[in-house]
Structures are given as C-alpha cells and as structure tokens.
Amino acid sequence: MERGIDVDNEAGVVVIGDGNSVVSGTAPAVRSAYREQVRRIAPPELVGREEELAELAEFCRTGTGYRWWRADAWAGKTALMAWFALAPPEGVRIVPFFVTARLGAQNDVAAYADVVLEQLAELAGEGLPALLTAATREAHLLRLYASAAEACAARGERLVLLVDGLDEDRGVTTGPDAHSIAALLPYGAPDLPVVVSGRLHPPLPADVPGDHPLRDPSIVRLLASSPKARAIRAEAERELKHFLTGGGLPYELLGLLTAAGGGLTADDLAELTDEVPYRVRDVLRTGPGRTFALRGDAYLLAHEELVVQAREMLGGRELGRWRGALRDWAEHWRERGWPQGSPAYLLHGWFPMLRAAGDPDAMAACALDAVRHDRLLAATGGDGAALGEITAAGEALLERGDRPGLVVTLLELALRRAALRDRNGRMPAELPVAWAELGEADRGLALARGLEPVRRVPALCEIARLLHARGEGGRARALLAEAYAPARAVHDTVERPSVLGAVGDAWLALGEPDRAEEVVRELGEVLGSRLLLDLVAFLCRAGEFRRALDVLDAQGRLGRGRTEDEGRAIVCAALAGAGREAEALDLARSAHGAGHALALVRIAVEVREGADALVAEGLDALPAEGWAHRSGLVAGLIEALVVAGAGERAEALLPGRKLPLVRGLVRTGAFDRAEALIDRIDSFTDRDDARTTLIEARARAGAVEGLGSSLAELTVPSSRSRAVRAVIGALVRAGCVEEAEALVAQEAPESVHSRTCLARALAAAGHRERSVALLGRVEEASRAPRREEVVRVLAVVAEALALSPGTGNAPGPSRAA
Question: Is the pTM of this model over 0.90?
Fold first, then answer.
C-alpha cells in the first residue's frame, strides 16, 4: 500500500556524514535527541521522488552554485530534504538547517548562525572561536564556510550546505537592524554547493545582494506537489477550523499547543485543562499529518502552515492568555521544588518557548533556577543544556538594552554559570566512560561534555572506541570529529600531546590512519613522535610497509628525523615477523649508527635462527660516542636486547639505565628478576614507573598475590593511579571483590578515581547492579561543592553595583546567593 509523505518540519538539525551521522547544532548535550527528531522528520517511505533524489545527488557530487527547490505549502519539500539529508551520497558532507517557528527560536539568523557555525568548526577541525558574541558570530561563520570546505576537500569529500524553509525566516521582522538567513548564505565559492528550499511567492529579503545567486531564476527547480500531501492539507485545515470554532476541550488543546510550540504530553495537557488523559488523547488521536502529530510522547501541530494559521486565528490576546496558563503551570512546579516526575516540557521546552516569545526577564528567571537545573541534570546527565540557557538569557538581556537591574542580573547569571562548572571540578574522565561501558552512552556523553577540555577529550575518545566496537561507526567518527576541535585548542605543552594523542589513538582504533596522520601533523615537531610511531606500527600490522616508510620520510622532512630511526626499526621488525627477513635486513643496514643497531636487534627478536649474530652486528654498529643521549632510542635498544635474550649485554651497555631493563624483563615474564632490579633504580620517578609496569603485568597475568603491598611502595600520583586501576581489575576478575572494595576503602575518602575503577571492573565482571549503584555515588561525590564564600562576596558586590549611582540599575534584592 502506498504510504503518505510526512510533511513535518523540525528545527535546528545538522547532518554530517555518509548517511549515518546526524547531529544537532545546538548544545552538544542534546545531540542524540535531535538525531532522533530528524529521523522522525523523514517519512517512512518517500513515494515518487526518485528523479528529484537523483538530481540532488548529482548536484551535490558535481554541481556548483545553488539549487533552489520551490513549491507551495504542503508540497512535501521538507520530507524530500530530510530524506536526502539522512542519506547523502557517498563522499558528501551535508550541513543543513531546517527553518521553523514551531519549536521556537529556530527561525532567524541567530539560530542559523549558532547551529551551522558549530558544525562548520568541527568539519574544519577548529574549536569554536573564543569570546563568540552576537557581534562576531556572523563574521566567523563567513570565514568558516571556506575553511570547512577546504578541510573536507583535503579528505576527499565535498561539503554541501542545505537550508530548508527559507521563506519561514522571521529574522528580518525583528527590528530595523535585523537581517536574513539568505543574506548570510555563501556565494562565489565553487567548492561549496548550496541547496535551499522554500515556497513560490515570498520575495527575497531586501538585504540579499543584487548579485547573489538566489536572484538568478535559472537555479530554481519546481517541485511538483504530492497528491497525498494535498489531501492531508485539506483535511488538516478543515479540522483546524473545527477546533477553533467548536470551543471546549479541542479549542483549549489547540490554544495550549500553539502557545507552547509543541512538546506537551497528554498528561501535561490533562493537568493544564483539568481533564482526564483519555479524553485528551481521544481528541488528539488524528491521522498522521493532519492537525496534530505525535513525537515520542509529546504532541505538536503537524505542519508549519498550521502553526501560522492557528496563531493568526487565535490572535495575540488569546496567545498571551494561553502563555499565561503555561507560566502559572511552571510556577506551580517551581513552588513544589521541581520534584521527580516534573513535566519534561518544563525542563526542555519551556525555555525555548520563552525565547520565542521574546521574554528576557522570564528567560533569566528560568536560567537562574538552580533547583530546576539539578532536575535537568538528573534528566540529561549533564549541565550542557543549563549552560546554554544561561548564555541565551544573557544575550537576550543585552540585546534589549540597558534596563534597571541589568548589571545585577548579568552578574547573577555569571555566578550561576560558575556554580555549574565548579560542581564538575572533581569528576574524573573515567566516570563518563564507565557509564558508556554499562550501555548508558547518552548519559556518559552528557557528563563528558560538561568537563574541561583536558578531561573531556579523552572521555569522548574512549566513548567513541566503545561505540565503534558496538557497531556504531558513524556515531563514533562524529564523536572524534567533535573531540578534535577542543583538543586543538589546548596549547599547554604538557597537556597538548596527551590530549591530541588521545584523538589520534582513537582514530587508529577506528581504523582511520589518515585522520591519525592529520593529528600527527597538528602536534608538530617532537610532541607528535609517540603518535607517529603508533601510526607506523598500525600501518605495519595492516601490511602497508611502504606507506609506513613514506609517512616516516614525510615527517622527517618536517623536522622529526630523530624519530625516524625508531620508526624504521618498527618496520624492520614487522617485515621480519611477516617472513620478509631479507627486506628487513636491507632496510636495517641502510640506517646508520644507533638506528642500524636498534633495527637489527628488533629483527633478532622476531627470527628463530641467527639472532645472536644479528645482536652482535647491531652492537658493533654503535658509534663510539654521541648516541647515548638519545633517550627514546637507547631505551628501545636496551629493552629489545633483553627480549632478544641478551640481558647481560644490555645491562653492561649502559649500567645506569635500569628502567628499560625492567621493561624488557617484564615483557619476557621474568617478574622476580624485574622486582629485584627495581630497588637498584636511583630515580624515584623511574622506580615508580618500573614498579607500576611490573604491577600492571602481574595484574594482566592474574598474579594477584602481593599486589596490594606493591602499591604501598608507589609515591608518584600518576603511577599510583595506573597501578590502582590494574590491581582493582585483577582482584575483581579473580573473584576477590571484597579485597578490591577494601583496597578502595584504603584510598583517600575523597578519591573518586579508585571508586570509578572499581565500578568499571564490576561492570566488566557482570556485576551491573553493584556497578550502577557505585557509579551513582561516585557521580554525586565528584560534583564539587559550591564556593559559598565566593558567592556571598560576589552577591555583596552585586548589591553594591545595584546601589551605585550612574550604573543604570535600580536597587533590588539579588538572587545570586
């Protein structure tokens, strides 16, 4: 049976990828929710649009300039655009924006810039510009059009911008200085095709330049109306008039849903109308695409045109009355302290409605409600949505201009933002990963996105690995693209290698060496050496020996020649392990000095015959002096000698370098000999590193006896952190859960790291319920207390500002505390 076309039109959706990555351009914490919404926009089946889809695909692959699909309302434009956006052609990256007023604050240039800017920044591999404001946002957007297109082209992809509902732009009606989305669309860029859709009759806004491609009639493609859509339209408009004229419950439901912008459930509407839910559902139980549509458990008007008609028919006074009813309802739940079971609309849809209604004071009150933010945290798992509300409220207040109390309210918003960020101050990066390991990926992502970049990036990378292992490759790749931007923005020379290295390692785990090589180039000389060697090893495991050498040569020309010897040794060992010993020897003997020695000893580890001769040849190749200062190469050589069975020669080579000796002994399973050697290491940091290496190896081998006492010898926090995780995991795997719990109890009571490690180990061993309970306690404990004294002092400052003459602010009570 032929199925109708859903002509629904949602808002703020950005699709990036190869057909399986759909993310939102709003606050990162709600991306997965928007992904589900955009999937609901597309009809279950697109009937009779094969020619249009083929033309769209061809234009995106090879076309330039613009294509403007135009038709009357209810023709199925949004259904076509959403279907295409969910399944773009291979090699095409689509960044669309759906203009609509039904969900509030998604039908003007500010919403367009916010949504598209973030996605372009991710595609360009950049972080969002610092100090982004309404005054600078559009300039950055114009720059990022080109940057994102160039970045995509470098990856062999093509960027396409898609804007649906261009005629629904209301930005040009908001004031004399406002302008349109159309005026911000790029032109003159052959590598950035643009697809737009809209109705036939509205003229272009006056601020669109005269030479803009949108003024060229040759770009227009007329979309034939769907007969099914026309039938739905006639029925929906007839039903809308019936609701408006019939009065009673149908009229009340229409008024509430129109004022709310959708998103109310049957229970919400029953509470608002003092009716029983059954009667509400009975009234709203209409066919798909008629007056009302069901999105999850919530209702909204089924088409943008119905929203416009309903608003016109109701009039401003009636809309104000219904908004007042919603305000009273929200106040009722606020007075109750936002208990568990508070309506989802008041957590997720209330603030966008206030923004769409243009009420900055109510927006600020909402953004300052700490108790509601706590309930929002419980619902989403993170503070991203609350932080977004604070930013939007501040911008709305500033746009309105100077008013009494402005400075005080802005300071209160700043304090609220600080409180939200402070309470995540002690949360470890492992906690979001632990939730994801339990199958709670959305909760883990919400937590991760509330962390500072140096902890957020590793958490996102680990979750991306988990998603990839579970078959969600598209989502994992999108997550790594998201992590790359904040990682690049970290400039601290201590943190930068580990943060960017986490992204590179994750790309390798996903089987994407090209993206890992991009990160190597970003790290630059010296800092990227570890990741470069990991990339070489990855390529060798894939049998791409020639490419591995090419990567080394390319990086050597960039100034990283010091790593080339170590990289060539990795290739030599891999060739020998693959049975290509002659090639390995030729490559090793083409090197010089210490590089020659390291390569031959690595080959000796892999071969069955002639290993002693290769070791001797390698040591003979060492120059008399000038090589011992190359710490990485020396450590690799000593460790390889031990593994090759030449431990005595390794110890005699450089008697003071005992850490690589321990590592070599650990690799061969000589744990007792390694233990005896550790106490002879002079440096306490090297001693802790060596002991941690031994503890981790024993934990992997299941040798749990004595691990607890070994932990007591560690003094360096980073080493102890690694060792604690290894020991806890080993104890749980061995069935010694009580011993693991006792070990955690011995750690500092405020330590969330050890408890998170225990929860992850319990989850891996199948103790899900215990893990969930423990993670909940860890999450609560990791939220740092508010800085009460700072808040109190700043509240006094706010009061002083309010009382100061010339500030433009009248005195009034502060809500900052």
Answer: no
